[in-house]
């Protein structure tokens, strides 16, 4: 029976961005029984043995402790499990010379929920009817921001400038400060650093400049650090987390091997944290505590930061090198393709300038040769204007074997060459 939905019901029952593509991918995989696909679409991290062992050991320690009953058999505080709050405060105070107290920290069931709370607490209509905007200062960015606001018109993204090295076939996005508008209408600002999908890392100066623009309006700047140091430390270039009065530093343990346990972390101003905590209480009472209890152990022992730096980072950095080397060896040098500088995260981002077909059509052609990537147009939530570039990019996940990545890049180069050639012949 077709349900009668509210306006919000209608909005929230649509799949947005990459989730919509995932449906197509899953159907393709199911229908193509027998056909072998190289699936480089996933944002799901691979299971690395050292990382799995860490979580197994922390679980064994929890099971053996008297704390176990308290963790799973009792409700707890909405702010999160106290030993994890304390572990984070201690770790960050020591590591970054901060003065955090437990009032500066909120734990959420995954960081996606944290963006949902923040987008609706700080963005949308005020009681006096003003629209507070949620600003994405550099588009493309995480596709999940497209689904977090209950007020779709509040989400506004800005086109970047492109720093292109033509001869090296490389490029990098930078925030376009000449266009970016942060005003009294700004409710909050969100960006990922390192960025999903591009692997871009905004410089410390760029981050400070964005925070300074938002400061006079008391607008929180949420820095989505799902791939940042100290865990999972998926930065391949030097970067330091930036803290400040109007910065909400947001983290996730998903890429540190714990996506199934759903742990998000917000660090910031006490009053902002309090508002988000109230939202959380109304929404789900509190996040589940088993994952939080094992995370407290992994952080207190120093193991999580250590494994992140020594295992997780090098694993994905090597994957990026394999991808880059194979892509550069296979792609024709005379075509206008550019790989985004691989500064972090678990993806490569390829821009095919003057692509004669859309990214979605290219995605379909790649499926025909057994390669699945994600069409780039899914990663521009909030960007209203039509920009050809939106339909000229692909996100390629680094979650394949070296051999799969190598084969996929050869096939991708072959298909790209054919696509440009077809257009040249018919012109
Ligand atoms: C940039 C970014 N932010 C947030 C998330 C959501 O992560 P989670 O809800 O698992 O913490 C993801 C997941 O892929 C991501 O890539």
UniProtKB/TrEMBL annotation:
<comment type="similarity">
    <text>Belongs to the class-I pyridoxal-phosphate-dependent aminotransferase family.</text>
</comment>
<keyword id="KW-0808">Transferase</keyword>
<keyword id="KW-0032">Aminotransferase</keyword>
<dbReference type="Pfam" id="PF00155">
    <property type="entry name" value="Aminotran_1_2"/>
</dbReference>
<dbReference type="InterPro" id="IPR004839">
    <property type="entry name" value="Aminotransferase_I/II_large"/>
</dbReference>
<dbReference type="InterPro" id="IPR015424">
    <property type="entry name" value="PyrdxlP-dep_Trfase"/>
</dbReference>
<dbReference type="GO" id="GO:0009042">
    <property type="term" value="F:valine-pyruvate transaminase activity"/>
</dbReference>
<dbReference type="InterPro" id="IPR050596">
    <property type="entry name" value="AspAT/PAT-like"/>
</dbReference>
<keyword id="KW-0663">Pyridoxal phosphate</keyword>
<feature type="domain" description="Aminotransferase class I/classII large">
    <location>
        <begin position="36"/>
        <end position="412"/>
    </location>
</feature>
<protein>
    <submittedName>
        <fullName>Valine--pyruvate transaminase</fullName>
        <ecNumber>2.6.1.66</ecNumber>
    </submittedName>
</protein>
<dbReference type="InterPro" id="IPR015421">
    <property type="entry name" value="PyrdxlP-dep_Trfase_major"/>
</dbReference>
């Amino acid at each position: 029976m077709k349900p009668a939905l509210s306006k919000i019901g209608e909005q929230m029952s649509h799949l947005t961005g990459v989730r919509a593509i995932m449906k197509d991918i899953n159907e393709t995989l199911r229908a193509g029984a027998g056909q072998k696909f190289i699936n480089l679409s996933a944002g799901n991290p691979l299971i690395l043995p050292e990382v799995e062992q860490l979580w197994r050991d922390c679980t064994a320690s929890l099971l053996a402790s008297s704390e176990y009953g308290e963790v799973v058999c009792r409700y707890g505080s909405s702010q999160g499990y106290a030993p994890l709050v304390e572990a984070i405060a201690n770790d960050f105070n020591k590591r970054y010379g901060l003065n955090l107290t437990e009032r500066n920290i909120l734990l959420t069931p995954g960081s996606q929920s944290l963006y949902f709370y923040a987008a609706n607490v700080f963005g949308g209509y005020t009681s006096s009817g003003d629209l507070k905007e949620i600003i994405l200062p550099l588009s493309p960015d995480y596709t999940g921001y497209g689904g977090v606001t209950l007020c779709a018109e509040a989400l506004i993204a800005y086109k970047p400038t492109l720093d292109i090295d033509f001869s090296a076939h490389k490029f990098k996005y930078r925030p376009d400060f000449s266009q970016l508008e942060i005003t009294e209408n700004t409710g909050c600002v969100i960006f990922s650093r390192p960025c999903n999908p591009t692997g871009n890392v905004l410089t410390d100066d760029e981050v400070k400049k964005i925070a300074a623009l938002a400061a006079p309006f008391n607008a929180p700047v949420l820095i989505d650090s799902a791939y940042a140091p100290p865990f999972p430390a998926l930065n391949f270039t030097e970067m330091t987390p930036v803290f400040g009065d109007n910065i909400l530093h947001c983290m996730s343990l998903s890429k540190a091997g714990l996506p199934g346990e759903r742990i998000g972390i917000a660090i910031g101003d006490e009053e902002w944290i309090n508002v988000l905590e109230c939202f959380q209480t109304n929404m789900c009472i509190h996040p589940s505590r088993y994952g939080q209890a094992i995370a407290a152990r992994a952080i207190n022992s120093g193991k999580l930061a250590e494994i992140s730096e020594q295992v997780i980072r090098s694993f994905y950095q090597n994957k990026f090198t394999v991808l880059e080397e194979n892509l550069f060896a296979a792609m024709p040098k005379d075509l206008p393709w550019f790989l985004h500088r691989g500064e972090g995260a678990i993806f490569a981002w390829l821009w095919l300038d003057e692509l004669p077909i859309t990214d979605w059509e290219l995605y379909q052609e790649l499926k025909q040769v057994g390669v699945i990537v994600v069409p780039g147009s899914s990663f521009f939530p909030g960007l209203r204007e039509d920009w050809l570039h939106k339909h000229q990019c692909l996100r390629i996940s680094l979650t394949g074997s070296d051999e799969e990545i190598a084969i996929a890049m050869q096939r991708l180069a072959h298909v790209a060459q054919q696509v440009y050639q077809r257009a040249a012949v018919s012109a």
